[in-house]
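Lab notes, practical 5.
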Amino acid sequence: MRIFSIVLLFDLKGVNLIMDIQTEKIELAKKLLDTENEYIIHAIRSVFKNFETREDWGDLPDKVAMDAEESIAQIESGLGIPHEKARETYKKWL
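Output from the prediction step:
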């Protein structure tokens, strides 16, 4: 009887976990649909892009790959700083 109780409890937790994930996905989708903040939209796009292209970065640590992909997404969306402006800003350190 004890083994059955443990298995049943585990199965119920699994069902709750699935329901919680579905609820979380719905809540996130609602928030995304309601936002007008383009930075949030770009960040969400970047997260999905990171997971789609994860294997392209070879041996780089996950954090480095994620930062690089986020930077690329920012540049592609027009949030980057032109090279000349960056050189001008940081010329005392170059």
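Observations recorded by the TA: Residues 1-12 have pLDDT under 50 and may be disordered. Residues 2-34 form the longest helix (33 residues).
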